[in-house]
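Input (structure):
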């Protein structure tokens, strides 16, 4: 997951409900990658784009239906005339994973096991960053991250390219809201 200009490994359990060994593999919600077979092109392209987004903020355009605004306590809807049109329309945004983390935004909705794991990891990283004093070094931060059991990379390792989460935190200039955007829609 791309967070705060870094790449973070998120661990989570995935339970196969009612698995008896008779269910067809093509009906599972995940697909196995076969060793020795070239990766699908979309995974390679996604990893390349995520790698380019991970270091700093950038301005991008997004396709219709690929930006998902986060609702906050004071904003329970996008509201206003034409708000549904703005949500469905293409637009422009700023991908800024550092500022998004500082403001408490995660690159996923916490609606399943993986979403909850991403939200928990995001919260842990934010708490570590907030707890650091002005005089504490990057080494102290690395120690705290390691103690929390989180793996962080400054650049996306080639071996992790196929496991990239497909969304990043961004601020839509069109809807004036924080949310997450599908990288494939940029």
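Output (sequence):
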């Amino acid at each position: 997951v791309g967070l705060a200009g870094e790449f973070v490994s998120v661990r989570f359990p995935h339970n196969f409900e009612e698995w008896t060994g008779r269910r067809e593999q093509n009906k599972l919600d995940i697909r196995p990658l076969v060793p020795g077979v070239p990766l699908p092109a979309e995974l390679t392209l996604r990893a390349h784009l995520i790698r380019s987004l991970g270091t700093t903020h950038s301005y991008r355009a997004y396709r219709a239906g690929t930006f998902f605004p986060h609702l906050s306590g004071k904003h329970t809807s996008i509201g206003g005339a034409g708000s549904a049109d703005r949500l469905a329309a293409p637009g422009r945004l700023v991908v800024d994973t550092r500022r998004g983390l500082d403001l408490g935004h995660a690159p996923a909705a916490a609606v399943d096991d993986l979403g909850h794991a991403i939200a928990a990891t995001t919260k842990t990283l934010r708490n570590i960053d907030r707890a650091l004093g002005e005089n504490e070094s990057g080494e102290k931060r690395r120690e705290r991250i390691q103690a929390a059991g989180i793996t962080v990379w400054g650049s996306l390792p080639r071996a992790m390219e196929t496991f990239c989460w497909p969304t990043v935190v961004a601020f839509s200039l069109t809807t004036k809201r924080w949310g997450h955007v599908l990288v494939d829609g940029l």
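Notes: The mean pLDDT is 80. Strands lie at 2-3, 6-9, 58-62, 67-69, 91-95, 151-153, 167-172, 177-182.
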